[in-house]
Design a protein that fits this description.
Layout (H helix, E strand, L loop, with lengths): L9 E9 L7 H19 L3 E8 L4 H10 L3 H18 L6 E4 L3 H16 L3 E11 L4 E3 L17 E10 L5 H10 L4 E2 L1 H12 L5 E2 L1 E2 L7 E2 L2 E6 L1 H6 L1 H4 L8 H6 L4 E5 L3 H14 L8 E4 L2 E3 L2 E2 L14 H8 L1 H11 L6 E2 L2 H31 L11 H22 L3 H22 L1 H4 L6 H21 L5 H10 L35 H20 L15 H5 L3 E12 L2 E11 L2 E7 L7 H4 L3 E5 L5 E3 L2 E3 L2 E2 L1 E4 L2 E4 L12
The chain binds 5'-O-[(L-methionyl)-sulphamoyl]adenosine.
Length: about 650
């Protein structure tokens, strides 16, 4: 690559900092691969890029995991972080800095930022009473719970009370609304922005920002009995990594960030809490937060607990070992639409790899290089003739870079790659139209044959530039085979044709070998099953974490009835809620449940369900809910409680 670093200004992009609770899975890889592609694209197009990633290492969850393993939290995270860094090294993720929240540089800076907010009068001491979700490290109020469980992960919450420090988040409510309303670019996609506007409009409570029930965290500088809330600690990473406040050189250069790339469930932290913290510290806000969707496995978010189960392999290391980094990166960037959830299956992945990479791109490279060897003595010839088909190929090839730029501006990685594949497919068709093997038989057609070979080499050269941000190893391999090993990848060259003459091509191994999909599916499935083994071998009979014990009289107050779901639909104003019409004996009633993430409305109709019939009715986002359907936490799944027939199927 040429060094035109910074000619277009600076570009600061971040991923979330990952929890090192266990190894990362394909879902995390997805976010980092997107950030990496964008960082590489911006560098190639002339920006001075800073790309930050890291790990979020404090909090009760880590402490609990370390205790269970009998090691210190630091030893626990050191081991997992080591694995994360190795994964990124294997994938050649081009980050400029990796911040760990346990590093001294972060710790002292978080404390300084805390003090800045404190001195502003935005932090005060109070008493916190609430419901705590340990896996999410989040306190919730009763009204935020969905079916009595954490609205983010659906798991049970525990009552908790502690003396704590609070951040005056409520003070920033109006400023935050102004931010969303006057600056639509700040949060995208639009649907997430609307969600946040209604969230803030409901009213913001002050935020509890310290904990005293465990000590794996950064001490509150004015009160060592408390540690700073893990989200406050984590969010500051985006500026502590730049040296704010004590070594502000990088901060002055790169802040505010151009974009924080985050998963949809943590948009709230990044677009409400983080801007409010920055407002409190009188610092500029990031220019944009982009919330991407989740990769789903069998309808549910790929998660660390799910990663060990099932036939689909979600361990990126296994997939890279079998198919290579570029194939995996291509698949992740091409298959899914930014902002939307997407389903991951081995089959979808293998088909993409075969059709787009082995067939389309791989074939184009091997056919072009073989034919130049065969018909032109291995040297790229000059173009000597031109007809409409040549002109069309040239215009599609030289026009692609601008289209890729437009798509990348929208973070539409899949569409950017589609623009490139339009060129690849057109070039394959060009070969079939021009039939070089027939031209080669007629010495009078030599000039035309040379033109065809030249145009194919040129088109592949352009493709090698265009794919560089997404698949830099493949880009280099193509350039090596084209005899372009000596030259740098320069983005502007993708707009030019007729740059090559006399390069010596050299056929290499197929860049993407064709996969036998059936065989791969079987083998992957066996690998998925093999990954179940350690899970099955885990020690049994570990007591569950439950809500406090109740007595029979408590239970006896509940009136359970069997009902039939007559209809189910999405709540018009809340993505998480489903609105059910249920028949209970002689009565029809409406029940609203927060399970839209887990069930499709149509699959609920006709089910016989157990209803808590005497629960006091309440309004949920403007709709009455009279009673409650029973759902139960099944480890990593939320399941509906139905009456079951003898054949084991739900009675419908
Ligand atoms: N530590 C916090 C982030 C703090 S940032 C100041 C955290 N960590 S996480 O490890 O749980 O998740 C990190 C990111 O991975 C999130 O953006 C999350 O959306 C993403 N993903 C986790 N599972 C995912 C999928 N199955 N699919 C796509 N992204 C997923 O949250």
């Amino acid at each position: 690559m040429t060094d035109k670093k910074g000619s277009k200004g600076t570009y600061y992009i971040t991923t979330p900092i990952y929890y090192p609770s266990s190894n990362l899975h394909i879902g995390h890889t997805y976010c980092t691969v997107m950030a990496d592609a964008m960082a590489r694209f911006k560098r190639l197009s002339g920006y001075d890029v800073r790309f930050l990633t890291g790990t979020d290492e404090h909090g009760q969850k880590i402490q609990t995991l370390a205790d269970a393993k009998g090691v210190t939290p630091q030893a626990y995270v050191d081991e997992v972080v080591d694995g994360i860094k190795k994964l990124w090294a294997t994938m050649e993720i081009s980050y400029d800095d990796f911040i760990r929240t346990t590093e001294p540089r972060h710790i002292r800076r978080v404390q300084k930022i805390f003090m800045k907010m404190y001195e502003k009068g935005d932090i005060y001491k109070g008493e916190y009473e609430g419901l705590y979700c340990t896996p999410c490290e989040s306190f919730w109020t009763e009204s935020q719970l969905v079916n009595g469980c954490c609205p983010d992960c659906g798991r049970p919450v525990q009552p908790a009370k502690e003396e704590a420090y609070f951040f005056k988040l409520s003070k920033y409510q109006d400023k935050l609304l102004d931010l969303f309303e006057n600056n639509p670019e700040f949060l995208q996609p639009e649907s997430r922005r609307n969600e946040m506007i209604s969230f803030v409009k409901q009213g913001l409570d002050d935020l509890c920002i310290s904990r005293s029930t465990f000590d794996w965290g950064i001490p509150v500088p004015i009160d060592e009995k408390h540690v700073i809330y893990v989200w406050l600690d984590a969010l500051t990473n985006y500026i502590t990594a730049l040296g704010y406040p004590d070594e502000p050189e990088l901060y002055d250069k790169y802040w505010p960030a151009n974009v924080h790339l985050v998963g949809k469930e943590i948009v709230r932290f990044h677009t409400v809490i983080w801007p409010a913290m920055l407002m409190s510290a009188d610092l500029p806000l990031p220019k944009q937060v982009l919330g991407h969707g989740w990769l789903l496995l069998g309808g549910e978010k790929v998660s660390k607990s799910k990663a060990a189960k099932g036939k689909d392999v979600v361990d990126p290391v296994i997939l890279i070992d079998r198919y290579g980094i570029d194939a995996l990166k291509y698949f992740l960037l091409r298959e899914y639409t930014f902002g939307q959830d997407g389903v991951f299956t081995n089959e979808v992945m293998l088909k993409r790899m075969n059709y787009d990479l082995a067939n389309d791109l791989g074939n184009l490279v091997s056919r072009t290089v073989s034919m130049i060897e065969k018909y032109c003595g291995g040297f790229v010839p000059e173009s000597k003739t031109e007809d409409d088909i040549d002109r069309e190929l040239k215009s599609i090839a030289t026009g692609a870079a601008a289209k890729v730029e437009t798509q990348m501006d929208k973070f539409a990685f899949n569409m950017a790659l589609e623009e490139i594949w339009i060129v690849v497919r057109r070039a394959n068709k060009y070969i079939d139209e021009k039939t070089p093997w027939i031209l080669a038989k007629d010495p009078e057609k030599k000039a035309e044959l040379d033109t065809v070979m030249h145009n194919l080499a040129e088109t592949l050269r352009i493709v090698s530039v265009l794919i560089y941000p997404f698949m830099h190893t493949t880009s280099k391999e193509i350039r090596k085979q084209l005899g372009l090993w000596y030259s740098d990848v320069v983005w502007e060259d993708a707009f030019e044709f007729d740059m090559m003459y006399g390069e010596q091509v050299k056929k290499g191994d197929p860049i993407f070998p064709r996969l036998d999909i059936e065989k791969e599916l079987e083998e992957l499935s066996a690998l998925g099953a093999a990954k179940d083994a350690p899970a099955a071998a885990e020690p049994e009979n570990i007591p569950l974490e439950l809500k406090p014990e109740i007595v029979y009289d408590d239970f006896d107050k509940i009136d359970f009835r069997v009902g039939t779901i007559l209809s189910a639909e999405k709540h018009p104003k809340a993505d998480k809620l489903l609105v059910f019409q249920v028949k209970l004996g002689t009565e029809r009633r409406q029940i609203v449940s927060g399970v839209a993430e887990y069930f499709k409305p149509e699959e609920m109709v006709g089910k016989k369900v157990i209803v808590v019939a005497n629960l006091k009715p309440r309004q949920l986002r403007g709709m009455e809910s009279k009673g409650m359907l029973l759902f139960a936490d099944n480890g990593d799944r939320c399941e509906i409680v139905t009456t079951i027939a003898e054949d084991g199927n739900p009675v419908t």
